[in-house]
Every structure is written in structure tokens, then in C-alpha cells.
Amino acid sequence: MQNVGLQLNNIVELLDTNNVQAIQDVFADAHPADIADTLESLTPTKRLTVWLQIPQILKGEVLAELSEGVLRDLAGDIDKEQLVDSIKSLDVDDIADLVHDLPHETLEDVLVAVDSNVRDSLDEVLSFPDDSAGGLMNLDATVVRDNITLEVVLRFLRLKNRLPSQTDSIYLVDSDHHLTGVLPIDRLITSPAEDLAITHIIDNPVTFDGLDHEEDVAKAFADYDLVSAPVVNENKRLIGRITIDDVVDVIREQAEHDIMAAAGLNNEADIFAPVIKTTRNRSVWLGVNLITALLGSWVIGLFEGSIQELVALAVLMPIVASMGGNAGTQTLTVVIRGMSIGTISDQNVRNVLIKESLVGVLNGLLWAVVIAVIAALWFQNVHLGIVIACAMVVNLIMGAIAGVLIPVFLEKMGVDPALAGGVALTTVTDVVGYFSVLGLATIWLL
Amino acid sequence: MQNVGLQLNNIVELLDTNNVQAIQDVFADAHPADIADTLESLTPTKRLTVWLQIPQILKGEVLAELSEGVLRDLAGDIDKEQLVDSIKSLDVDDIADLVHDLPHETLEDVLVAVDSNVRDSLDEVLSFPDDSAGGLMNLDATVVRDNITLEVVLRFLRLKNRLPSQTDSIYLVDSDHHLTGVLPIDRLITSPAEDLAITHIIDNPVTFDGLDHEEDVAKAFADYDLVSAPVVNENKRLIGRITIDDVVDVIREQAEHDIMAAAGLNNEADIFAPVIKTTRNRSVWLGVNLITALLGSWVIGLFEGSIQELVALAVLMPIVASMGGNAGTQTLTVVIRGMSIGTISDQNVRNVLIKESLVGVLNGLLWAVVIAVIAALWFQNVHLGIVIACAMVVNLIMGAIAGVLIPVFLEKMGVDPALAGGVALTTVTDVVGYFSVLGLATIWLL
């Protein structure tokens, strides 16, 4: 790769030798995203030192590239006036993104600082939820009336001198600002200049409503290979434009959310945040886990007498719980993914349940035979082997059923399956695993 | 949203009533990505019926949109000649992607069927690894000599009539096909036509080497908001062009891989694959899990005598194992993410280890107190409470250390941390959890 990235170790070295001039030189030619990466790799105390060496003109864009946790921390350390100065010259959608993540008074300060037309635009974008098409849109669409020729369009563009980034099409509107269609730039430059613009438009373009969810927007961009797309209000009037660079951020954030949520973490988790803060953030999840673990222990506690009689049960019961949890997690993962990309819906969830249960039965039988042989040989007790085997089949089927039903149920309750699904599932497979091993043993063996 | 998606339930209904004409009508105006979604939501037997109703002209693009598992299954059912016919008219990068996922003889058939210039292009793309910039590139770059005026460029584009999709810039080369620079389309149309093209180029554009890894390409596209970028060979000669639509696919596949791998699943896992096939695919992972679970059981088995003396140990030990696993998974998740986005490197991994260990100590102490009180009250045994508390601290610190070191070690060994990290970590926290509870109890209590 050429012209990509920064040398982080250089920056750390320059910091250690307090060579701020050299840092300024490195940053002068750097891309804001690379500077943001550098900041994220540093401890909080070093971040402020480095921040002060960033050219003023880049500071806003660097802030826009930072992850939420790092942004909030750093913004708390920066002089308020300088913060507003850095932000106010950004694109409206970037300002909107930033003020969502910053304390409310920052928004008020920014609204006072910007020009009145930017303020109006910002009001418009901020009137939509953060995770909607409206919250994602910018107001920099290149718009022309639909009754002019391509030559006039070209002359108009020449006057503007520069087009907004990611402009792959011009939007045509009627006299009431209703979107007539979309004119791709390549048609504009390859078609006869005397033609009317309207004869070269795509007349059924993908358009978004301001309230569409950003995940649906992302799916449409990915499916239809879009670079930009118009946003319209309920009266089909053009209100903004969404571009692929912001959609890519949505896709990356969504992916990060799914991975982090499974461990009870926020996207904003900052690897270099202070120890106390991280401890506090993580402790909540561990508390939830303790409660679910106590539930499993309570089940074991019901069978103390059985364990005392046959200690092998205590040795083998975690295997059944763990296998159920693993098989169930496989089902859960596939189902959550299917629900999020849309291949699983109310129409076919019954098929999925039947299939996953059958897979649970087959894998249950397979590993039941294996564990039965191991248990029987280990403890010289064939009956114990049979008990463990039966418990294994029960728990793998339970894991499959829970793996399908838990995410479906959570989704209907409005709870994020990526966050709560794993905990709920392993609670079920632990409880059922312990209960089936110890219960069956108590009935059959003791 | 407008002009987005298909009604899946309509298709299912039409299938049930065998109304193939109506399905053909729905597909006639549909986007290939939507048809692919529909196919993925159906059971394998229905897929072939629906496939036959897809207009021939769309079939190749539908195949290109299918996930690997569904593609392979469906391709096995399609007449070979028809398969090659569908594929051969696609873009070269799409053909290359498809033949990577299909049996080797398909490639040979395709190479025979395509024109000789497409064959040469295909050879070029296929000479690079599937997950490299070269494997991702297309050969449709719009290229002009660097010594002509904008007017000549515009006339050339008019002659071509259509530009390749996602063309936001024209590439300028010298007489040896070395890349001189990149001319953004907006500069082309807003600058004076008599200017030399070379005066309006971006002279330090981001370029990729054919062997760059696709994840680095994806990061650069996201960081620098690229729509397309040139690929050059080691002599800086232009060999191709990467576009954002393919990069979006890389980002989505990578995210899916990370989520699926954590449950031991392939990206290609098809939710509606036959039960036997799914059982077989998943059983491998369950086998790995069984071995790690047996390791935990072996540790418990070492202390059978202690458990018989104090059954409460069997009741409480899973809590310690589970809490260590959860805390460790939090660390592991943050570290894997930090490594993949580049905020964690050899330079600062020591800082991360110290910080995570401290978090482990603090959360260990917090939950040690809680579990000590619960255990002491439950079993009326203060000493038992103290033992469990100490084991909790030990295991949470162990979880933190393992959460940092395991992914670093796996990465150095060339093993995917997203796949093996979770299993390795919970094996450590299970073994250490059981050992510390039972070992400390054996020394202090019995």
C-alpha cells in the first residue's frame, strides 16, 4: 500500500523524547483517520499531549473519527471553546454524530457558534433519531430542476467548482422540490449535452425515508452497490443524501456491536480507559452472570445427597452442561445471524426449529455414546454411563430449542439478542444439564 | 424505503400454488441481491424450482450474491452448461470469486467458454490469493494517457458511452502504463476543458499492491472514504481497480466470520442445509469442546475425596469457573478487537496486560466478597466462604491474563484468535477455577 497509515512507534518515541515539533511535522501531512488511530492506541494521559500537536484544521475530522469512549474522555479534557471551534466547520452529519456522543451543553455551544444556515440544517438532521436514515444523511446533495438540459447542468456544476465528496449522481426535483429522479454523473458526461436531463435519469432509484433504520439503509447500500442515495420526507420532497462512507461506518459499528455485546461490552469500551472505570463498566455483566451461575448452583444443591453417594456425578455434570451450552450457542449464533440478514422470519422459523432440534438429537446421540463409554470405563459403572448419555441427549435437544426460541422471543420483547441471548441460553443449558444428570441419577442409580 | 426488497411470503405462496408464471413476473423486475435473499430463505428442495424461474440474464449476478454454502449446494443441482452460461458474462472479479467457491472443473469449463481477453484478465486476477487486493480487483479501470487535455478525456469518455460502475476517478498513466495519478470525475467536469489532465490529478493517491491483504484494503477504504482505488504491481504499473461495493462485501464477510468463528461455525453455514450435513459440520466443534470439558472433569476427579467430605464444593465450584470465564471473555473480546483494528500492537500489549490484570484484581475482590457472604450463609461455613472468595480472585486474575496472552500467542502462531480464543480461554478458566476451589479447600478445610 502507498500513502496509507502512520508509524505509531515513531509517535511514541517522539513523545518520550518530548519532540513535539517532529510530531507536528508528522501530523501536518497525515489523514485524520490515521491521527485518530494513533490517539486510540495511547494511554489517556498521552492523548491530550498529542492532541495539542494536531493542526487546528484537522482537529474536527479527527474527533469525528474517534470511537465514542475515547471521544468523550478526550473532549472532557479539551478547552470548551477549542472543542466547539474544531467541530463547527465539519459537515452537518458529522456535527450531528459528534453532538450525540458529547454532553448536551456542547450541542448548545455549537448551535450558537455555527452560521444560521448550518444551524437550520443541523436542526433538521437532529430531528431524526441517531440510528435513522435522517440521522445519517447530509444536506450537501447537488440538486437541479428537472426541466433543464445536460449542458445547463454542466455549466451549473462548473460554477460550483467542486462537488461534495461521494457524488455519483445529481438529483432532479420539480418546482415543489419533489424528487423526480436521479442523474448518474457518467450519464451526464457521456450523453449529448443538448438532451434534457430528465431523459437520462434513473426513474425508479432507491430512496430512503428519514425514519428508515440505519441497518436497513446499510443492507440496501450493500445489496444494490450504492455510492449515494436520496432521502425524502413523507411528501416525497428531497431532504438529504446518504453516502457510502457513512454507511461503511454503520456496518463496522454494527459488526463491532454484535461482537462486543456478546461479552456484555459497549462499543465505546476504550481499551486504555482508567482501571476503575473499566472495572465498574464490566462489573455489571459479571453481576448478571453471578445470578445465573447461582441458579445453576441452586439446582446442584437440590441433589447434595446424591452427589455424596456418587461423587462421579460432580465430576461428569459439567461436561453435560458445557456440551449443551456449546451446541446451543451454535444454533443461537446461526439464528441471530439469519434474523439480522433476513433469511429467518416468522414464515420459516418453524422449519428452523425442527431442523435444529433434529441436529440436536443426532449430535446428542453421537456424543452420548462417546461420553457413555468414557464414563463407564472411568468409573467402572455402566449405569452411570447410561445416565450421562441420556442427560447429554436431553441437554443438546434443549440447547437447540433454546437456541431458536430465545432470540425470537428476545426480539419480540425488544431486547437485543446479541446482548442477552448468550447468557439466557447458557443459563438454560446449565440448569437443564445439571438437573438431567443429577435427576436421572437420583431416580435410576441411587 | 422505495424500490427495495421482495415479498418473500408472496414467493412461498406462489410456490405452494405452483404459480411459476407469477414468480417469473416478480423476478423480471427484481434486483439479483433480492432474488438471492429469497433463495437463501428457502429449503434446498424449493431453491431449484425457484432458480428455474429466474431470467437467464440475472442468473449470474444472483449466483454472485449467494453465500458460499448455498451457492455450492445449488450449483451442484444445476446443469453444468447452464451454470457456465450464467457465470461467463459476469465481471472478471465476480467470476474469480465464484470459481474460488465452486468445484475446480467449473473453472476449466468457464475458461473454455469465455472470450480470450476475459480469459487473460481472469488469469491475472486468479494469480493472486482470494483474500488479496489482486483477488478483489477488477480490470475495468478507465485509463487515459497523462499528456492529454481534459477536453480529450471528455471526448474519450463520450465515445465509451458508459463508465464502469463506481467510477469516481480516471487513472492517468505514462507510456509504460505506470500510474501517474488519479483524476477525480468532479475535477474533470468542473475544471477548464483546455487544461492538461495532469494539472488536476491527485498526485499522492492511495494505491494498493496486488498482494496487500483484503482486510488492510478494507481499513484503508473505510479510513479514507474511498469509492475506488488503483492496484499496481511491484513496478508501479497499473494492473486493476478496487471498488467500494466489493470492499463492503469484505467488511460484512469479515464481521460474519468473527461472529460465526466464535461458535466454531463457517461463514458458509447454510441455515437450511440438510440435517445430516449440519450435524456433521457442527460435531467437530463439539468434539473439541468435549476434550476441553474432560480436562476440567479430570481436575475435579483429582479431588473426589474432598468433594465427598464437603459436597458444598461441588455446588459452588461452577460459579468460580463461570465467573472467570466471563471476565476472561470480556478481556479476550476487547483484545481481539484491538488487535484487529490496530490499537493493540507489540508496543503497548504490556500496558494492556497490566491494566486488564488490575481490572481482574478489582472485580475479583468485589465478587469475592459477595460470593463469600452467600457461601458462608448458605452452608453456614465461614471458612468455605473464604476459600471460594480466594479462588474467585485467583480465577478472575487468571482470566484477565489469559484473555490478553491467548490471542497474542494464537496470532503469532498463525491461528485465528476469533476461532480458537474462546475455547482456549474457557479451558484455562475452568481448569484454574476448579483447581483453585478444590485445591484451596483440600489444604485449608479438610
Describe the structure.
The structure is a homodimer of 446-residue chains. The first copy, chain A, has a 3-stranded mixed beta sheet with strand order 1-2-3. A 3-stranded mixed beta sheet of chain A has the order 4-5-6. Chain A starts with 7 loop residues before the first helix and ends with a helix. The longest helix of chain A has 31 residues. Chain A has 446 residues and is mostly helical. Chain A folds into 3 domains: 123 residues, MgtE N-terminal fold (Alpha Horseshoe); 119 residues, CBS-domain (Roll); 170 residues, Tetracycline Repressor, domain 2. Chain A is built from 21 helices and 6 strands. Chain A is globular. In chain A, helix 8 packs across helix 10, helix 18 runs antiparallel to helix 19 and helix 18 runs antiparallel to helix 21. Chains A and B meet through helix 1, helix 3, helix 12, helix 13 and strand 4 of A and helix 1, helix 3, helix 12, helix 13 and strand 4 of B.
